[in-house]
Structure prediction request, 757 residues.
Amino acid sequence: MDCTNERRKIYLDNAATTKMSEAAIKAMLPYMDGIYGNPSSLHSVGQEANEALTSARERIAKILGCEPREITFTSGGSEADNQAIISAARLGEKKGKKHIISTAFEHHAVLHTLNKLEKEGFEITLLDVHENGLITAEQVRNAIREDTCLVTMMYANNEIGTVQPIAEIGAVCREKGVLFHTDAVQAVGHLHINVKEQNIDMLSLSAHKFHGPKGVGVLCARKGILLTNLIEGGAQERGKRAGTENIPAIMGMTAALEEACAKIDENAVRLTVLRDKLIVGLSQIPHSVLNGDYGHRLPSNVSFCFEGIEGESLLLLLDDKGICASSGSACTSGSLDPSHVLLAIGRVHDIAHGSLRLSLSEENTEEEIDYTIKAVKEVVAYLRGISPIWRDLVNGKKEFITK
Amino acid sequence: MKALIAMSGGVDSSVAAYLIKSQGYDCIGCTMKLYHNEDVGISRSRTCCSLDDVEDARSVAYKIGMPYYVFNFSDGFREKVIEKFVRSYESGATPNPCIDCNRYMKFDKLYERARILGCEYIVTGHYARIEYNGERYILKKALDETKDQSYVLYSLTQEQLSHILFPLGNMKKTEVRKIAEKNGFINAEKPDSQDICFVPNGKYAEFLEYYTGKSYPAGDFLSTDGAVLGKHKGIIRYTVGQHKGLGISTEEPLYVKEIHTEENTVTLCKEQELYSREVIVRDFSWISGVAPRGEIRCKAKVRYRQKEQWATVTPIGETSVKLVFDEPQRATTPGQAAVLYDGDIVFGGGTVVK
Prediction:
């Protein structure tokens, strides 16, 4: 296991995106040349496409525990988040309710939409996510006011992997008569979800996080919730989302979702073993800290901060060793500021800078994990060795923040 | 040999990347993300110019066939460049932040990153030349004097020079554009950048007010003998030698001679009173690494677009010098760089104090 000269690829960035599964690819192909019709067309070629679309909607609804008409196909998780929040805000506004509850470590698709609403005069309460990255249903209960129109919380965090008590929060919202949306982009296909049982009014998901294609997702919204259009045009998706449906992608997503959900338990067992091995291995690095609660976390997520190094350099050198990792969430420029998630759980700037996220898939092997632990140890030691900040810490000129 | 190419998204650094790659180096392209638009008051709704530049650089890097990264250096840039720029302006000087950016970002922070990546060299699209004379490295002007950028590179140390390649030093801009066109680079026709990157359209006063959140109070314009001539609109709006925009009408035109921060006054004078022969320069660095033992004769310039003038230079300790020009110079401006030349060769430079 030589970590220096080997040309290999270990993909540990599955929270950013996943490789498409064979089932998903196979499911898409017939809809590119064979069944290529526009589902809105009257003729038989169009009808065939419409049949496929209808069946996909039914299959996805069955998995999520909702009715087919509660499924709206979107371009992905971000669009679904935007539409859910804007719709709830417009409904609330009509009743004079302009207060929204969320958390500080949501995805930017949520946070930026909330910022936009704040500028329009909405009041936003962001709940404390604590050092463990968890909120409680009690916090939500205490924050709900007469004028609260929406509670929106992510199911599982994309950077630190913490899983919120969604069913409990859903119950509180239902009891209080407040709409509840969850950004479940990191959770769908990885955790058991049933929107009815968990009292989820709206849920966003994205296909490429569970081995489906990119550029397609779902907004699942309980019937009776009037959605606001983000895109005007034709009458697709019951007039709530214009644009000819991306049938190949929708078929790929459906197949991927069915496959992923059928294997949730099997995958969770396998991933948890690998994840825990990584956590134990990386914890041996001095002055390191695991981000996010250990007990309530995605089976695929490992997130660490290493004091005295820059996450960016760490990623570059890991890439050089064939390890594809991330320091937080992917961002347009490919470069990162200290992540808002890590700052939200109270990591100070200097610590948050040295972050590493490894997100696993069921294709990863134990041997890859061993190699990764060894490589991260080597790279952290190397970077600390040449870091003036580390020298100051070791000499006692600066105080260590972590143990 | 491995080289890290600093790519701004402009045509010069793109061609520099192409030339180094053609010379057989194992290349990595990168762009430094130095600030966020919101932090410097460039509206978010406007296309993020720096992101566009990143996309241009990425396009070229991929076209040439090299890996490409964006490095987030915004913390360092704020501390070492923007903050210093603000403090300098607030103290009545007129700084040149590009010099600090070269010194602290490109050839320090970025070089550190290059070492981490196992690169022996940093490559930039600067128009300047580096030569080794068997004993030490020499920084020389570009062959194309109209594009010469050696002025903003005076702070380079011997260690840094030994790890830098300037592939455009021997080229003309027209040749550079031709190479870009021939290779179909997306930015072949992109105009040269003019302003300071984080101060759009050269609106310094607006930038300072936005960035610091302060307003700079009005005060008195004074004559050289202390008489009050009128009101100024805050010292950050003025630079030594300025005539336009003073809002004062007198028989003989008046110019800014000095800016006094503590008293919040701006002293005005007549054109002929702007001239002086003596200049004190601090924070001086000698390219050779050592100050000469005594007085030397050489040419010097105290602003970017100026022809060098003969001067007598006396080192004061290792890091300051006194320049005495043969001919009086107009409006020597604190904060600007004074750079010494022997023909094509750069001796060194520093910051004008007075």
User: Anything to note?
Assistant: The mean pLDDT of chain B is 90.
